[in-house]
Amino acid sequence: MKRIYLICIAMLISVSMFAQNQVKTYKMKSGYIKYNIGGSSKGTHEIWWDKYGDWKREEKNITTTTRIFGKKNVSKEHTVVITKGKLTWSADLEKNTGNKSINPMYDMMQQQMASMSEQEQEDMAMGVLGGLGGEKIGTGMVMGYQCDIIKAMGTKVWSYKNLPLKTESNMLGFKSSEEVTEFKPDSDVSTSKFEPLSNIDYKIEAGMEEEFEAALNNPDGVGAAKKVATLTYSYDKFKTIMEAYNPDGYMRTGPMNMFGNYTCIWQKSEDDMMAITVASSENNKEMDLEEMAKMDNVETFSHYGQTCYYLKPKSENSGEDLAAVLMIHYKSEKMIVVVAQKPDDSKQSLLKFYDKIKL
């Protein structure tokens, strides 16, 4: 049951997972790239990858300077994130702490992508880009490599074989840039680069240690093929409802149809956003709703005839309260609607948001 919250969040950030979990994230088997970061943040960003990006190590060393009411604030970030298939180890070298996790949707997404042709994968990527309000605007040269130039949500990316070589962003008044300074495509990368750091004690959500250790034996195996259930709820209907909801001051991302899950996000700032995702309950058997209803941090109630679950999880490691989500189970349609909002994630506020766009 500890994975319920992880699944909810995974559903809500399916767009970013799509970018991470294509059968071939990059069109180069292995390599290394280093970027210089500019803007209010200064520093470096390095990526080593193998297996077309399914194994990856990212290291960021960044200093960010901001001024609020004339007061200067300097923060430092030094992180190392290692991904091997469905497993991820994240280390904060400033705090000397780390976490490890399993992507609960990895197998399903890998299976679906493996069943698609390259053209179908490309069509899906273009569909996601369109959902973000983006488009391919041309081509350009970066360090002698011809790149596709893609623009979406205030960000312009120069992409070479699915790998960004240059990025310029101006979102919500925050300007940033990354540009390649060193690039070694198709170069060999030592397997030691993908081992978790020996000096970090990686924590994991309580109750998931055994599953994590079992997955270490086959981190990028997807097991037996599963039949993926499709939503009976119309995506065209979802799209119409989402596009009609345009609260003042918010930028909408989506709607999008990602692997049969429907998602839409509205954002005013990093700390002010709303999101809704619809998924088939048949593809999320890990969500034992009857057992979840017995948990101390779950309130079960009925709303317009549908069973709802208000889930306010608490981190087992730190005791820190995490953002709450509202889940609405439509039994007859065999679907689950997940609603999230911040900063106000109270039950009343989540219900008020959902009632405005009731499916």
Write a structural description.
By secondary structure, this protein is an alpha+beta fold. The chain has 2 domains: 10-215, Lipoprotein localisation LolA/LolB/LppX (outer membrane lipoprotein receptor (LolB), chain A, Clam); 235-356, Protein Transport Mog1p, Chain A, CATH 3.40.1000. Helices cover 19% and strands 43% of the residues. It contains 8 helices and 19 strands. The chain has helices spanning 3-12, 14-20, 106-114, 118-131, 209-215, 235-243, 289-292, 347-356; strands at residues 31-39, 41-50, 55-68, 71-84, 87-92, 97-102, 135-142, 145-152, 155-160, 163-171, 174-185, 202-203, 251-258, 261-269, 272-280, 298-303, 306-311, 325-330, 335-342. It has a 12-stranded mixed β-sheet with strand order 7-8-9-10-11-1-2-3-4-5-6-12. The longest helix is centred in the middle third of the chain and has 14 residues, at 118-131. The protein is globular and about 60 Å long.
Provide the fold topology:
Blueprint: H1 3-12, H2 14-20, E1 31-39, E2 41-50, E3 55-68, E4 71-84, E5 87-92, E6 97-102, H3 106-114, H4 118-131, E7 135-142, E8 145-152, E9 155-160, E10 163-171, E11 174-185, E12 202-203, H5 209-215, H6 235-243, E13 251-258, E14 261-269, E15 272-280, H7 289-292, E16 298-303, E17 306-311, E18 325-330, E19 335-342, H8 347-356
Summarize the entry for a quick read.
With 359 residues, this protein is of the alpha+beta class. Helices cover 19% and strands 43% of the residues.
List the defining traits of the structure above.
single chain, 359 residues, alpha+beta, outer membrane lipoprotein receptor (LolB), chain A, Protein Transport Mog1p, Chain A, 2 domains, 7-stranded antiparallel beta sheet, 8 helices, 19 strands, 19% helix, globular, disordered N terminus
